[in-house]
Amino acid sequence: MFKFSSNEIRDLFISFFIISLAFSILYSRLDFTNILNILPMVMVGVGLGFILHEVAHKISAMRYGYWAEYKTWTPGLFIALVSSAFGFIFAAPGAVHIYGQYMTDRENGIISISGPLTNIVLSLIFLAVALMLGNTYIGLFNPLIAVPLWVNILFQTCLLGFSINAFLALFNLIPIGILDGAKVFRWDPFIWLASVIVAGIMVYFSFTGFFLIN
Q: Can you tell me whether residue 96 is helix, strand or coil?
């Protein structure tokens, strides 16, 4: 039966808030006034990206008959906050712990790839909404034309959601340690490579703003 324990909900909330704060510190470049302004927008991208990433792992594992529960990793929360102050994020606040026996590489790979794929899909959705707003309200690309404040806020939220989810996908696909990428690579190197290429292109676009060029 698919359900969340009270401890799991608590751990998800703590991790969600800390990761949101870490990304806010990163994007604000240590401008503490701007952190408070950007935090609500970041929380949308992180909230959907981080929580649905972990839920995807949980659902995939339970489909195979395993018990799965998210737990925070306290050192990872601390590292995320500290690293964000230095211009990058090591985003490993916790993980879905899977309990069962005789898990095959294929099962482990599919469970693992479900998280990054969720981030890729979310990133594309955020990008599509941002481009739709840009095309509808041309003023988003022309500072001489005024647009409603809520449109600008939604546009910036979508850009952050696109960037954050692209990064989460690529970071988790790194094939080392306990990250998803190691298990996906062991299952199918070609699927791993294709996922990394897609996520990498999206991260590149998020940094360059290439898709905003008319």
A: strand
Catalytic option among 8, 54, 69, 107: 54
Q: What are phi and psi of 2, to 5 degrees?
A: -85, 115
State the pairing for strand pair 94-99/67-72: antiparallel
**Residue 73 class from Cβ within 10 Å (0-12 exposed, 13-18 middle, 19+ buried)?**
middle
- pLDDT tens across 47-76, in order? 889 999 999 999 999 999 999 999 999 999
* Percent of the chain predicted with pLDDT > 90: 58
pLDDT in tens, 138-188: 666 666 567 777 888 899 899 999 999 999 999 999 998 888 999 999 999
Question: Of 198, 40, 42, nearest to 121 (Cα)?
Answer: 198
Rounded distance between C-alpha atoms, residue 111 and residue 117, angstroms: 11
**Mean pLDDT score, 12-41:** 88
Q: How far apart are CA 12 and CA 72, in angstroms?
A: 7
Phi, psi of 53 (to 5 degrees): -60, -50
Q: Cα 88 to the chain's mean position, in Å?
A: 14
54 annotated active-site: yes
